[in-house]
Amino acid sequence: MLTLIRWLSRRSLRFLHALGAALGWAAYLSSANYRRRLCDNAALAGIPDADRRASVAEAGKLVAELPRLWLRPHGAPIGEPLRWDGDELLVELLGQGRGLVLMTPHMGCFEMAAQAYAQRFGARQPMTVLYRPARQAWLRELEASARARPGLATAPATLAGVRQMLRALKRGETVGLLPDQVPPEGLGVWAPFFGQPAYTMTLGARLVQQTGAAVAVAWCERLARGRGYVVRIRRMPEPLPPPAVGDDAAQQQAEAGAINRSMETVIRECPGQYLWGYHRYKAPRTLAPA
Q1: How much is the pTM?
Q2: Which of 113, 117, 129, 236 could form a disulfide with 220 if both were Cys (CB 3.0 to 4.6 A apart)?
Q3: CA distances in angstroms from 235 to 176, 177, 181, listed in the order given
């Protein structure tokens, strides 16, 4: 497997995206459960058929481009054409001299979003990204070595990882996370996402409230025919509610709702690159469904 990954890492982005599109459709046609979940999630959000079909290929591209992104030599510049949209907002927020929380939905190439930030801003304000380690030992080792780069550290989705992110924010650094990722039991609340209850992490809002960090949305659009990427920076479409004294459960519910509505707004910018096949509405194993 590692031999194949190394071979793929030397292929052009256009080749990898063509291969990925084929793999995406193969997975869609061969798995009834995956196909049903993708179609149901897209229909729930009112996504047009053209965008739903596009998302099938884009999910495969996400997998196929990983070898090239992961095995790029540390310190070597990003080889793919890359441009920014909204980077003036990022410069403004970094200039405030406090920590920054960047929230990225499961859309486009989120691996490139982190690498692009590290290359351009990492020396000025390093970034720590939250990730869920793979189950396979060999893949965990590959992830750990591939994702940690100059100006870019990784934090596992554990209590130790949360503490690592808190320390980074208190040093005035940046952290990145995927707020639409289903968290473990006890680290989320049920909140509507495209009209259906989804177990939603509370970590992002807690990091902002506890450290006074700024917050924004970042995602990376994949251009057609391997022509590169666009990193897009946006203000949160809906600001987080101010801290309230008293009912902590109600506060968490309000924060999760605001984040989910913000992610919905951003996802509608490029629905064809959202992972509609992601099991967003599942409950943690020991938690009853909503």
Answers
A1: 0.93
A2: 113
A3: 14, 15, 20
